[in-house]
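hiii so um. not sure if this is the right channel but i have a protein structure encoded as tokens and i wanna go backwards to a sequence. like what aa goes where. can anyone help
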């Protein structure tokens, strides 16, 4: 029987509520598929600032490094807006990514059949089974480049090394091999020198994956094509800032940001799994948060870090089945059962 150690970073706002439901579902999956899970909790974000004065305590990093994987709720909120930039809750998130070497962010944009009507895109454009995987480089680029400010100007530096581009490209090509063997690399090589290096390096890596069809697209065109014809995409690989923007766009094509999971991976099995939405402090404690993105993040964790693909598939199938008749307030439609955060977790467990 496999035994896994998971660190929980419940975070701020609705974070504790949604993580609690994800844990409940993970425990049910462990029971069904014959593995065990041991949990440890640590602080990250605003709650860490309140308790320790910093958004990422050393103890949190140590606990995460000692675990098989990490589940994160959400961080941030207006309460900590007066903190300096390097001590805001979001700095803790950037810090844990760097500390754990999490360089690859996987952001799926998937249409769940029962939620198709929630997409702002016409049915004939999105089709019946849109399934896009965006692979975003997570620890380089403009978010981590040199920056500064003068009297009346400021600057941020976009910088990538060949090694950084190679490793994220290989993650994307490996995923493409397991899916439909089609990869779109997104850059701005007509303007940016860093993008020209990006494109050259991706082309070089592609020679190791002759079965994968590689296409290149400028980021502005990709933003348009995601709305015009999303079915053309399967796996997209791109830089930190472009991936940040495009993955949020793709999430809305799928109908609700409250439904989408994400994985941040290192070179090994360790990963950090979280919903792509924020901490929603305005609804915290009201029991109406949607836990499904966090539950689906657990499914990604089972697939990519814990080598439990059958459990992952079972959770995803359970979520799809539950959505036929049940909705939290953010995705509610007339005629459905309106359920709370906890009730949604219970329904997924019952379906499992």
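sure thing!! here u go:
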């Amino acid at each position: 029987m496999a035994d896994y150690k998971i660190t929980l970073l419940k975070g701020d706002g609705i974070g504790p509520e949604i993580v609690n439901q994800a844990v409940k579902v993970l425990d049910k999956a462990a029971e069904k598929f014959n593995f065990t899970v041991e949990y440890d909790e640590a602080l990250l974000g605003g709650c860490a600032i309140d308790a320790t004065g910093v958004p990422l305590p050393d103890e949190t990093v140590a606990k995460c490094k000692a675990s098989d994987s990490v589940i994160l709720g959400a961080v941030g909120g207006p309460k900590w807006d007066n903190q300096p930039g390097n001590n805001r809750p979001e700095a803790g998130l950037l810090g844990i990514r760097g500390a754990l070497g999490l360089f690859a962010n996987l952001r799926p944009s998937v249409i769940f059949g029962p939620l198709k009507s929630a997409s702002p895109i016409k049915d004939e454009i999105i089709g019946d089974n849109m399934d896009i995987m965006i692979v975003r480089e997570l620890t380089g680029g403009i978010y981590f480049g040199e920056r500064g400010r003068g009297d009346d100007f400021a600057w941020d530096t976009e910088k990538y090394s060949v090694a950084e581009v190679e490793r994220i490209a290989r993650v994307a090509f490996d995923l493409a091999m397991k899916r439909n063997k089609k990869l779109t690399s997104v850059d701005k090589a007509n303007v940016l020198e860093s993008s020209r290096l990006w494109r050259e390096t991706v082309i070089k890596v592609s020679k190791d994956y002759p079965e994968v069809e590689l296409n290149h697209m400028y980021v502005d065109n990709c933003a348009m094509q995601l709305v015009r014809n999303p079915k053309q995409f399967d796996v997209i690989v791109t830089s930190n800032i472009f991936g940040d923007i495009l993955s949020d766009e793709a999430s809305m094509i799928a109908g609700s940001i409250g439904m989408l999971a994400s994985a941040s991976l290192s070179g090994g099995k360790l990963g950090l799994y979280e919903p792509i939405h924020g901490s929603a402090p305005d609804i915290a404690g009201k029991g109406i948060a949607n836990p499904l993105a966090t539950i689906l993040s657990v499914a990604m964790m089972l697939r990519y870090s814990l080598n439990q693909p059958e459990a992952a598939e079972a959770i995803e199938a359970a979520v799809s089945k539950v959505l036929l008749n049940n909705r939290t307030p953010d995705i509610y439609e007339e005629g459905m059962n309106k359920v709370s955060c906890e009730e949604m977790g219970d329904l997924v467990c019952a379906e499992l």
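oh and The radius of gyration is 20 Å.
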